[in-house]
Each structure stands twice: as structure tokens, then as C-alpha cells.
Design goal:
This is Polysaccharide pyruvyl transferase family protein. It holds the Pfam family PS_pyruv_trans. GO terms for molecular function: transferase activity. It comes from Halomonas qinghailakensis. It is a single chain. By secondary structure, the chain is of the alpha/beta class. It has 2 domains: 3-171 and 344-353, 3-Deoxy-D-manno-octulosonic-acid transferase, N-terminal domain (Rossmann fold, 3-Layer(aba) Sandwich); 179-342, Glycogen Phosphorylase B (Rossmann fold), CATH 3.40.50.2000. It contains 13 helices and 15 strands. The strands form 3 sheets. Strands 3-2-1-4-6-8-9 form a 7-stranded parallel β-sheet, sandwiched between helices. A 6-stranded parallel β-sheet has the order 12-11-10-13-14-15.
């Protein structure tokens, strides 16, 4: 019996991280059946990235795409539908869209289509969205979250069939860290929304200035992996030192340039999950600089991978320089932990494809 796998690829066009993790998942899926990707609404560059995936492509509307699945399943074929990974807040579309989606899931379930969502974060939902999500979860074969904070939240709103599945970035091959990495540039990369609401958005600047002073002798580079982060990273770079260069990698990059940049870095300081994990995969040491209580996605994912001691909490009374000294003094141990984390988390993802 043939295995037909369906996937709607459209995602945030300005977020290179999302494009990469979707492509990683699709490459794994292409090894497990006949993969059909719906590229409706995808940018031309993203479509170019998807050309590297062994698959057929379509631009059908969502209802017609669902009908294609139902037709094959009712013929007795094995059919799977995988949803995109990422963070879901339950606010993607209005009541009409949610109703259509729920109706499609019901049809899929009772026609034999297996629905899965791997490597997601959930909530917080508004009350009505939480109830809809709880009902939708009943129709999934694999309904997962990538960190235990989301799992705890899901249980709180009544979702019972949730399982742990790591972030798709752990599917990346993990490079070993050569000795040359120890003297490579220090990368900073910060998202807009966790900065303050004032006009300059520079509340992290004192922490980063102290970090730059500690790392004197190493070049510092500001990197924007998401286009909307660029103004804030430029402002931070200017505040730290006028000599700090700023490089923007937008969705026109296929991922190769940014991974090449990360492969030369010694440390990466960021509050962007996929900046941290992408850089870690190339041998850099990731140091999340976050509000641990508010930025639960990174907190949960790093804790689940036994990497929580790398986090610097901006709301703690700890000294950033002492934290950096701790990381430097334990670099060999941390490198081993990162190797193990990528190996274990990748295996946990792959196990879901074999169920």
C-alpha cells in the first residue's frame, strides 16, 4: 500500500528560521512516502528551497486539497496530513476559518486520514480558542508540543492526548566545535518584542555592553535572521560599539549564508530560539539572554534538552560577566552536552515517524 503524505507549506515569509525548520521536516517526510506539498501562497525563494525536497507540488485551495486526501483514503490508500511546526496561539483566522478547519479535521478523521503536528508550542489561547483546540486535538494521530511548559498548559485547558516532540531544528546535523571556534566572533541577535516599549528599544544594551567588554579581543557581529528584527539589532549594535557590524539574512537567503556565518562564531547571544539552535548546530555555544518567566518557549526547550544552565535571566540579580565566565570555563562540558542534546532530541523526533 502506498503512503501519501500531504503538507501545507505556507508560513511567515520574513522569518528564515521558519522556512528552514519546515524544509527540515519535509525532507524527513519525503523519505517516508509520496510527499505532496501545497505551495499556495509561498514566496518564490521558499519555493526554491522546497525544490530540494523530493516531492510533488500543488497550489490547490485548502478545501480541494483536503478532498484529494479524502479521495485517496477512501480508496484504501494510507494517507497522512502533517501540520506545520511552530508556535500556535489559536488566533490564526476568524470563526469561519476555524469552523472550516474543524469540519475538515472531522472528515479526515472518519475517512482514515492520519493528522499529525510535530514540534509545536501552544497558547496562551483565549477561552473559546482553547475549547476549539481541545476539540480539534481529538482528531489527531500525533498531537505534540516541543516543551513541557506547553504540555502543562495543554493539560490545564483539558487536552489529554499531548506528547512531547522536540523542535525541528534538532534535525540539523550537529557539527563539532573546532578549536578555532574559541576565538571566532561573538554574535548578537535579538527579536523586537522582548525589548522595551520605549522609542529606542535598548533595554538590553547595558547587558550586551558588559558582555562585549568581557569578550574584548573577539569581534562582535550583529545578525538579523528575521527581517523585522533588523532596526532593533542595528540600534543595539550602535549602542554597544560603532564598529559592530550588522548583517541581515532575510528570506531571500536559502539558509547557506547564515549557516556559514554561524559556523565561524564562538558564542551566540540571543532571544531568538532558532538563532540559538542553528548556531549551536554549527559548533557555536548558544547563550539565551531572556526573561525566563515570559520567554517560556526558549526556557522550556532548553530545559527539556538539559541545556537550561546556558540561560541568562535578565530579571535575575546575576552578573552577565560571571555567567559568561562560567560558560567559558565549562566549554568542553557544554560542547559534549550540546552533542548529546542534538542526538537525543533528533532521535525523539524520528521516533514519531515510525509510530
Amino acid at each position: 500500500m502506498s503512503h501519501h503524505i500531504f503538507y501545507v507549506a505556507n508560513t511567515q515569509a520574513d522569518n528564515l528560521g521558519d522556512l528552514v525548520i519546515n524544509t527540515l521536516l519535509l525532507k524527513e517526510l519525503s523519505n517516508r512516502g509520496s510527499l505532496n506539498i501545497n505551495v499556495r501562497g509561498c514566496s518564490s525563494n521558499y519555493r526554491g528551497m522546497l525544490d530540494s525536497v523530493n516531492s510533488s507540488k500543488t497550489e490547490k485551495s485548502y478545501p480541494l486539497y483536503v478532498l484529494s486526501m479524502l479521495f485517496l483514503s477512501l480508496k484504501g490508500e494510507k494517507v497522512s496530513f502533517y501540520l506545520k511546526p511552530g508556535h500556535f496561539y489559536g488566533n490564526d483566522g476568524g470563526a469561519v476559518k476555524k469552523t472550516i478547519t474543524l469540519f475538515c479535521y472531522i472528515l479526515m478523521k472518519f475517512s482514515g486520514v492520519k493528522i499529525s503536528r510535530l514540534g509545536a508550542s501552544l497558547g496562551p489561547y483565549r477561552p473559546i480558542s482553547g475549547k476549539i483546540e481541545r476539540f480539534q486535538s481529538l482528531f489527531f494521530k500525533a498531537y505534540t508540543a516541543r516543551e513541557y511548559i506547553s504540555i502543562s498548559y495543554a493539560k490545564k485547558i483539558g487536552i489529554k492526548n499531548l506528547e512531547y516532540c522536540p523542535d525541528m531544528a534538532f534535525l540539523l546535523d550537529k557539527d563539532k566545535s573546532p578549536a578555532s571556534h574559541h576565538e571566532g566572533p561573538v554574535i548578537i541577535s535579538f527579536r523586537e518584542k522582548t525589548l522595551s516599549d520605549d522609542t529606542e528599544n535598548l533595554e538590553l544594551a547595558p547587558t550586551l555592553i558588559a558582555a562585549a567588554s568581557h569578550f574584548k579581543g573577539k569581534p562582535m557581529l550583529a545578525v538579523s535572521q528575521v527581517t523585522s528584527d533588523a532596526p532593533h539589532n542595528q540600534a543595539l549594535a550602535d549602542k554597544i560599539d560603532s564598529n559592530v557590524k550588522h548583517v541581515i539574512f532575510d528570506s531571500l537567503d536559502d539558509g547557506s549564508k547564515i549557516f556559514d556565518t554561524y559556523s565561524k562564531a564562538s558564542y551566540v547571544l540571543s532571544n531568538r530560539l532558532h538563532v540559538l539552535l542553528f548556531a549551536a548546530s554549527k559548533g557555536a555555544i548558544p547563550i539565551p539572554i531572556i526573561d525566563k518567566d515570559k520567554h517560556i518557549k526558549i526556557t522550556g526547550i532548553f530545559d527539556a534538552a538539559n541545556l537550561g544552565d546556558l540561560i541568562f535571566d535578565v530579571n535575575s540579580k546575576d552578573d552577565i560577566v560571571k555567567h559568561l565566565i562560567f560558560v567559558e570555563e565549562n566549554r568542553t562540558i557544554i560542547e559534549d552536552k550540546l552533542e548529546l542534546a542534538f542526538e537525543q532530541q533528533k532521535n525523539k523526533i524520528l521516533n514519531f515517524f515510525d509510530k
